[in-house]
Amino acid sequence: MNDKTLIIVHRRELVEQAARHCRLAYPDRNVDIEMGNSKASPSADIVIASIRSLTSGDRIDKFDPKQFKLVLVDEAHHIVAPSYREALAHFSLKEPSSDSPVLVGVSATLSRADGLKLGAAIDQIVYHKDYMDMIDEKWLANAVFTTVQSEANLSRVKKDKFGDFAIGSLSKAVNTERTNDITVRAWLANASECKSTLVFCVDIEHTVQLTEAFRAAGVDARYLTGKTSKDVRDEQLRCFRNQEYPVLLNCGLFTEGTDIPNIDCVLLARPTRSRNLLIQMIGRGLRLHPGKKDCHIIDMVATLGTGVLSTPTLFGLHPDEILDKANGKDLKDKEYEPRSPDAEEPETPDPDTLDDINLTFTKYDTIYDLIVDMKSEKHIRSLSHYVWVRIAQDKYILSDASGWITIEKNSLPDDSSLSWTVHYVTKFTSPVADTVNYTRPRLIATGPDLESVVHAADTFAGSKFEERYISALQPWRRRPATPAQVTFLNKAKLRQEAIRPEHLTRGQATDLITKLRFGGKKRFEKNVERRRKEANRAREVERLREKEEVRVGPVLR
C-alpha cells in the first residue's frame, strides 16, 4: 500500500525541525528520522531523512518506492545536485511513470548560484508567493533596513567558482579590528533595544573575534559554528529562543530553514554576491512571533561597488544607494538616476589606514522603500565577476576570441519565465573558402529575471571562454589603453578631442570597443546628441533669464 511520505532535507537541524513540526501537525501518524544513528522503522508513515544519510552506501535500498505516495524535497534549489538526483532515481522520479510517487519541492529561493536548470528535476512551478506579498498579507513580519557605509575594502577579495566572495580572502578583508568595531558600534547605535539579534559572519575566526568585540562593549554575545558540539548548540539555541541573551553569532549554520521566530534583528557582517544567500539570511528574521512588530536588518555594505549584493540590490536599488530611515510607502516612488555605465569608481583608502571612522546609517521602514528600477552596467557587474558590456537597453554581451554570449530581455507577456534569454555564438573557419564564419545564435538558458540568467550565462561562459579575456579581475585591464586601442577609438570619432592612452584603462577601452563592435555606436551617438540638446536648452534658459532680469541702472534704449 503506497501511503508513506518521504521528506528529504539538507541539514541535521532541519531534519529535527521537520520531525518536530510533523509530529505536531499529524499526531496520529508515526514519524521517524533517517539520519546518522537514527534509523526509520518499516512501519513509519512519515520519514524525514537527511540527503547525506539517505544516499550513504546502500542505505536507500531499504525504502521500497512502491510504498511511497509522496516525496517532498525541502530547500528544493538543491534538487539537481548529484546526491538528490541519485535519490530521485531510486524512487523512479528521474523518468517518472504513473506508478511513481508524487514529487513536490519547496523553497524560498528557487534558483541556483551556478544557473543549473531546476527543470531537470521539476516539471512545473505550481505555486509561488513573493515574500513581499507575504509581508503585505501578514504571513511574515515587516522588515526595517539599515545599511552602514563601513568603508570595508573588498576590491582585492577573490571570487569563488560561482562568483561569490571566496571565504578565506573575504575573511582577511572583513575580519579586522576596525571593521569589527564598526560593526559593534553600528548595532549599538541602531539595534541595542532588540531582544534577539542573529549575526552572520564570514568564518569561524571572524565569528570568534566579532563575538569578543561585542563582549568588550558590554554585550552578552555568544556564538555557534560547525565545530560546536550538538549539546552546546542545543542549549545555546534554547537560551536564545527564550531571549536569555541578545546577540547570537554564527557562520554558515542558520541560512536555510532554521526556525527561530523571536529573531527581531539580523546583522549581515558577511558580504555576499549571492542573491539566494542574502534572501536566506534575511529570511531568518521574518518569521512571526508574539509581540514582534518587525525585524531590523543591518547590512554592513562596502563602499567600493565591487559586487557586494547588499540589501538595496536585493530589493531593486542601485548597489551604491545608501539607505536612510524613511517610511516605505513614502519612498515607493523614490527617483534614482543610475550612474553612467562607463563612470569610473573613485579610489577609496583602505579602512585600516583611516584615522577617523565615518559611519553613515540609512533606514527604510518597509520593503517597498527599496523598489526602483536598475538597468546600469554597474548592476550586472554586481552580479557577475565577468566583464559583461551593455550594448543596448536590457541587452548585454560577453566575448572572447572564439565567440560571444548575449543576455537579452524579450517581450513575452504570456510567459514571464522566459522573459530573459541567453544565446551563444561561436566562430569557425570554413574549410572550403578559408573564411571566418559565425554560427547561428544557440539558446543556452532562459529565466524570469536578469539575476537568474546571469548565473546561468556565467557558468556556461566559464566552460567556453578563456578567463584572461572575460574576468574583471585581470591585471591587464588596469593598465593604460594600448596605442592600437586609442587609434581605433579615435577613428570612431566618439568625441571632438582626441583620446589619449592616459584617458582610459585597457579594460575600459576594450569594453568601449566591444560596444562599438556590437552596435553601441548608434546608442552612443544618440546620447551625445541628447546631451548636446540639453546643453543648448540650458544655454537658452540662461539667455532668457538674463533677458528678463531687472537690473538697477540706466535703462538700455
TrEMBL record:
Pfam family, one: Helicase_C
Coiled-coil regions listed: none
Residue stretches of biased makeup (Basic and acidic residues): 328-342
SUPFAM superfamilies documented for this protein: P-loop containing nucleoside triphosphate hydrolases (SSF52540)
Cellular component, GO, one term: mitochondrial matrix
Chain spans, region Disordered: 328-355
Domain named Helicase C-terminal: residues: 183-339
Residues annotated as domain Helicase ATP-binding: 1-128
A molecular function GO annotation: double-stranded DNA helicase activity
Keywords: ATP-binding, Helicase, Hydrolase, Nucleotide-binding
Extent of Acidic residues compositional bias: 343-355
GO BP, one annotated term: mitochondrial DNA metabolic process
Protein name: P-loop containing nucleoside triphosphate hydrolase protein
Source species of the chain: Aspergillus avenaceus
Upper lineage: Eukaryota, Fungi, Dikarya, Ascomycota, Pezizomycotina
